[in-house]
Amino acid sequence: MARIQDGMEAFFKKDEWTYGPGRIASTLVTGFAGDSGRWTCLAYCAEDSQQLMFYSVCPVNSPPEKLASISEFTHRANYGLHVGNFELDLSDGEVRFKTSVDLEGSDASFELVRNVVYANVMQMDRYLPGILDIIHGDTTAAQAIEKVENPPS
Question: CA 39, CA 30: separation in Å to the nearest integer?
Answer without folding.
Answer: 9
